[in-house]
Amino acid sequence: MIRMLIVDDHDLVRMGMKQVFDSRVDMEVTAEASTGEGAIALIRKQAFDVALVDLSLSDMSGVDVLVRARAIRPEMAVLIVSGYPRTNTRSTSSRQALRASCPRTRRRRAWSRR
What we know:
This protein is an alpha/beta fold. The chain contains four helices and six strands.
């Protein structure tokens, strides 16, 4: 079972993501956070396999969460989710060794891998 953490400052987005992943038998959303600090606190308390993190949170950027999460749990995958164009996501986070990003668009090729 893949344990997931969803981090987004919009309740509706978190609810939507949770609904999508709750329908999967191999994935479980085990926690949610609305702020970066809340996400870091959860990451310190429990292990997750994947964290889906919004690029732009109310208290810090998703890239800041990525950097801090990797320091705490280097084995955890962090996926940055963004409403910004792919180029903005890459330029902001490429220095942080972002492995993948997922824009919140309906384009055919939603995943961007480096």
